[in-house]
Amino acid sequence: AQTVTQSQPEMSVQEAETVTLSCTYDTSESDYYLFWYKQPPSRQMILVIRQEAYKQQNATENRFSVNFQKAAKSFSLKISDSQLGDAAMYFCAYPGYGGSQGNLIFGKGTKLSVKP
Amino acid sequence: DVKVTQSSRYLVKRTGEKVFLECVQDMDHENMFWYRQDPGLGLRLIYFSYDVKMKEKGDIPEGYSVSREKKERFSLILESASTNQTSMYLCASAMRPEETQYFGPGTRLLVL
Predict the structure, then answer these.
(1) Which residue in A26, A42, A80, A91 is a FRET match for A48, CA 20 to 30 A apart?
(2) Cross-chain residue pair B58–A103, CB shorter than 8 Å
(3) CB within 8 A of B26, min separation 6: which ones?
(4) Phi and psi for A46 in degrees, rounded to 5?
(5) Spans of chain B below 50 pLDDT
(6) Do B103 and A95 touch (CB under 8 A)?
(7) Is the CB of A70 inside 8 Å of chain B's CB atoms?
């Protein structure tokens, strides 16, 4: 079964500090995308960052970067210089293939709190 | 920017009512999705559509149906609402299913 696991239900970070959210997944595919989505309290889910598995270089978007370890099937999100607006639920996601094709398989999420 | 809109942010219905949730996207995406989001369960796919009039069941299709008569519009129908369908419903669209999906703001449905 294809799964995405986020082992940290809740995390907390001090404003301006760095935090890393963990994600592991299970797949037999060799080429795929991985996603981190953010869902603030207003509930609109937005894309934070995307990684293509065939690219060895880790994706970066401003203060957000990933540590992609393909062999370990690990895809963590690092948030640098945390801001109050980063407080949200963060979901790691992976596209289903085969029987689940068309699906984004989501982890259960990590709730990030940012302390002023 | 991709824009995905949903017809209602909040909805209160009675058990047994027929409920329509509508979703519209403005980026000519082929693929559209309906998810249900519940605390502790994450997001689960109800149905998706890869073309007009085409649909595929997701992980939890029971009690739901969908309609896609036009490319930009994907409707979720609860034929006879039940209390266990109280949830947050999220619509999404994508050019290809394995690529970035863009989400609407969600509809929080309460069935009494």
Answers:
(1) A26
(2) yes
(3) B2, B3, B4, B72
(4) -130, 150
(5) none
(6) no
(7) no
User: CA distances (Å), A66 to each of A2, B77, B78, in order?
Assistant: 21, 38, 39
Q: Mind telling me how many Å the CA of A80 is from chain B's nearest CA?
A: 23
Residue A16, chain B, CB below 8 Å: the answer is no
Cα distances (Å, whole numbers) of residue B73 to A27, B65, B67, B100: 32, 14, 8, 18
The first and second tokens of residue A60, run together, are 């970066």
SS3 assignment, position A73: coil
Higher-confidence residue of B99 and A96: namely B99
B90 closest CA partner among B69, B79, B74: B74
Q: What is the nearest CA distance from B17 to chain A, expressed in angstroms?
A: 26
Contact B105 A44 (CB under 8 A): yes
pLDDT at position A28, please? 77
Instruction: Give A58's DSSP letter.
Output: P
Checking if the pLDDT of A30 tops 80, the result is: no
pLDDT greater than 90 at residue A10 = yes
For residue A31, give the DSSP letter.
S
Structure tokens at A15: 């404003």
**Between A and B, how many CB-CB pairs are < 8 A?**
56
Q: Which of A95, A97, A106 sits opposite B43 (nearest CB)?
A: A106
B43 vs A contacts (CB less than 8 Å): 91, 104, 106
